[in-house]
Amino acid sequence: MAWTKYQLFLAGLMLVTGSINTLSAKWADNFMAEGCGGSKEHSFQHPFLQAVGMFLGEFSCLAAFYLLRCRATGQSDSSVDPQQPFNPLLFLPPALCDMTGTSLMYVALNMTSASSFQMLRGAVIIFTGLFSVAFLGRRLVLSQWLGILATIAGLVVVGLADLLSKHDSQHKLSEVITGDLLIIMAQIIVAIQMVLEEKFVYKHNVHPLRAVGTEGLFGFVILSLLLVPMYYIPAGSFSGNPRGTLEDALDAFCQVGRQPLIAVALLGNISSIAFFNFAGISVTKELSATTRMVLDSLRTVVIWALSLALGWEAFHALQILGFLILLIGTALYNGLHRPLLGRLSRGRPPAEESEQERLLGGSRTPINDAS
After folding, report:
1. Is residue 78 part of a domain?
2. What are phi and psi of 140, to 5 degrees?
3. CA distance 214 to 212
4. Residue 187 domain-assigned?
5. Where does the signal sequence lie (predicted)?
6. What is the largest CA-CA distance in the chain?
C-alpha cells in the first residue's frame, strides 16, 4: 500500500531530525572559542551541559502530549486518555540510566567520529537481548542469536576501521579507543533502561510522549543540579575545559557568547531530539516498528555521508563492511527477514515478532537515540 503524504512527512521528519541531532552535537564539539577570564581559545567540550540540553528537548515532549490531549478532547482517541493513573516516580530509575548513558555518549562523541558513534550504538541489541533473557524471562529464537553474533562481528569491524584510520591532533588513537569503549559501556546502561521500562513502565499503558517527557524532566532537573559539584570535581585528562574540572558550565556560556554559532548548534540539538522522538513514535504508530528501524539505519548513512562531505572524518572502506554487518544483525534480531520468508512460503510471521518490536523497535528511543 502506498504511503500517504502525512506518512512520508513523518518518515522524512524522523530521518532529518535524527541526523541533525548527532551532527549538531558534533558541530558544537568542533568549534574553538575563548572561555571565561581571558582563557586562551579551546574547543567546546561540554558533554554534560549538552546532555542537559538533550533532556530539555525530551522534556518538551510533555508539551506535545498535552497539546495532543487537548486536541483529542471530545474525540475517541484513548491513546491520550487522561484517565490513565500512574506514579511518575516509576520513571526515575530509567531516567537515571538515560542520564548516565547519554552523558557517557556525549563524552565519547568528543573523542570519536560521528559515524562511528552512530554505528557503535547498535551494540544495544547485544545487551538488551541478554538482559531480556536474564531479567524478563524471554526466549530468543535462532535468528535473534544470529543477529547478536552478527552485531558483535560488525562492532569488531567498525572498531578495526577506527584503529586503522588516520588520526589528527583532535582525535588521537588513544582517545578514539576510549571513546569507542565509552559508547559500548553506554549501550549497557541504555539496555538496562529499556529492560526497566519494559518491566515496570509499559504495563501502565502510559502514552510514549508522556513517558519521554517525564524522563526528560527528571534528567533535566537532576543533571542541572549535578553541574554544580561537577564545576569543582577535578577530571585530569578527561577534562575539556581550562580549569580541568568534570564540567564548567560558566566556561561553556562564555564560549557561546564569543562564538554565537555554538548556540545555533545547541538549539539544533535540543529541538531535533524533541521532533525526533515525536516523529519516531508517530512512525511506529502510523507505519511500523520495522519502518522505524530502517529509517534509523538510513540516518546512520546520512550522518556518515555528511561527515565525509564536511571533512570531519576520512573515508575507510572497512566502515562500509562494518555497517552492512551491523545492518544484517539488526534486521535479524528485529525479524525483518520474516516478512520476506513469509511471502516466499506464503505463511504468517511468528507471533513473537510484535514482542520483539516492543522491546527494541517500540515507541521510544532512549537518546535520543539518543537508541
Report:
1. no
2. -85, 135
3. 6
4. yes
5. 1-18
6. 71
Selection from 208-212, 289-293, 353-357, 365-369 with the highest mean pLDDT: 208-212
Q: What letter would DSSP give residue 349?
A: P
Q: How far is CA 291 from the centre of its chain?
A: 17
Pair 87, 151: CB distance under 8 Å = no
Chain position carrying cell 528485529: 334
For residue 246, give the nearest of 32, 108, 49, 38 by alpha carbon: 49
Number of domains within the chain: 1
- Among candidates 110, 116, 108, which has minimal Cα distance to 163? 116
**Average pLDDT value over all residues in the chain:** 85
**Residues 6 or more apart in contact with residue 328 via CB below 8 angstroms:** 147, 150, 154
Burial track 277-292 (b if 16+ CB lie within 10 A, e otherwise): bbbbbbbbeebebbbb
- Contact status, residue 65 vs residue 145, Cβ threshold 8 Å: no
Nearest-angstrom CA–CA distance, 179 and 220? 24
Task: Decide if 122 contacts 316 (C-beta within 8 A).
Answer: no
Residue 196 to residue 94: CA distance in whole angstroms: 6
Does 361 map to a domain?
no
Instruction: Find the domain containing 257 and state its range.
Output: 5-33+44-69+87-341
Q: Hey, how many other C-beta atoms are within 10 angstroms of the C-beta on 93?
A: 17
- CA dihedral sign of residues 106, 109, 114, 115: negative
Buried b (16+ CB within 10 A) or exposed e, 144-170: bebbbebbebbbebbbebbeebeeeee
CA 80 to centroid of chain Cα atoms? 25
Taking the model in full, what pTM does it have?
Answer: 0.85
Angle at 193 between CA 189 and CA 195, to 5 degrees: 115
**pLDDT above 70 for 228:** yes
Residue 38 placed within a domain: no
- What's the confidence (pLDDT) of residue 257? 94
pLDDT over threshold 70, residue 37: yes
**Beta carbons within 10 angstroms of residue 172's beta carbon:** 12
Distances (CA, A) of 232 to 95, 137, 215, 246, 251: 24, 44, 27, 7, 13
Per-residue confidence band for 170, with pLDDT thresholds at 50, 70 and 90: low
Evaluate the CA torsion angle 363, 368, 369, 371 in order and state its sign. Answer: negative
